[in-house]
Amino acid sequence: MKKVKLATIWLDGCSGCHMSLLDMDEALAAVLRKADLVYGPLVDAQSFPEDVDVTLVEGAVSSEDDLEKVRLVRRNSRVVVALGDCATTGNVPAMRNPIPVREILERVYVEGADEQPGAPAQGVPKLLKHALPIHEVIPVDLHVPGCPPGAQAILDAVGALLDGRMPELGTKVKFG
Amino acid sequence: MPQKISIRIDGEYVNATEGQTIMEAARANGKQIPGLCYMEGLRPSGSCRLCVVEVAGVARLLPACTTPAQNGMLVTTNSEKLTRYRRMAVEFLLLERNHYCAVCVSNNHCELQEMARRLGVTHVSLPYNYPRLPVDVSHPRFVLDHNRCILCTRCVRVCAELEGAHVLDIGGRGIQSRIVAGLNRPWGEAPGCTSCGKCVQVCPTGAMAEKGCAVEEMVKSNENICKLAAHRGGHA
To answer: Among A10, A145, B1, B194, which residue has the least CB neighbours within 10 Å?
Structure first.
């Protein structure tokens, strides 16, 4: 049987969703019998492959770099899953949203700086006006909320997708 | 002596008393209709729209908590259409202000979060509003975080109807509406507040909490408040 190409990506989040993914423990072995992990922070691939079956996205879209990445993910993936609260609601990264970006950068890099005050302008991607849930910038096929989503919820979702089904998460997942 | 009437809820005949709302008739017969602003013993406000039901012969949906039961009424409390509208109501509540369950004192003890789970709301399909809202920490014991408030007005009603203080109210109009204390003063400077904490206990979200609670630590109980209301004969 042809293996499913599975990718993960880490945008503006804390990596907790990836930790929860690893928390599947021995079930990971069963998942990896059906899928090849072709991209993500857990493997070495340098660029996002062209034809991925399922991509799990952790994190909100907060910068121009995130935006570019998530659009590439959408172009190259058959199924895109918003994994965790940052990807589904914006969550903690979105707590800055009521405050203008310039005000935040001033507060952190000028008022909060002991030396060399000034927001970094080069070598870092520009922040977007708002940290956004990914479905506000690309179509999303499945949302798995949670901070982080439990290992079982991720397993239920990934397990169904690997079998070519859309999972019925229903009331098994929650925000927070 | 109030007249006995009979209505049908989801096909089942149910006895009710004239003057009872659909919500009261349903609950008296062991039937649960979802609700966030509704609280037994307080006057209904009809503000959250979670308890909408279908009534035969009425084209629009009606809130069960404010609609009086009428003899012969046919009420549907569960349908695909109702679930769709209830989900929408929860999404509107979530997008209007800034709700971040993961860092909330009421995480895992929140009626809004639980309602979203029960209705299978896994994301909010419309853009969020991101208003810049204050947190009132002026009260010595309690916090009022407007970011987490859904304007259910349980706090306003419990303060006015059960504590008899009426320190809390709604100020402003429309999307600018806010819970205010002491005619729009910092809560800690509101002269009528007895610091009884009933408002905190009835608040369905983390909008009102005891000071010093960290994430997930604010466990509320409105059981005693419902008992107190029952002793007083409920809302009159």
So the answer is: B1
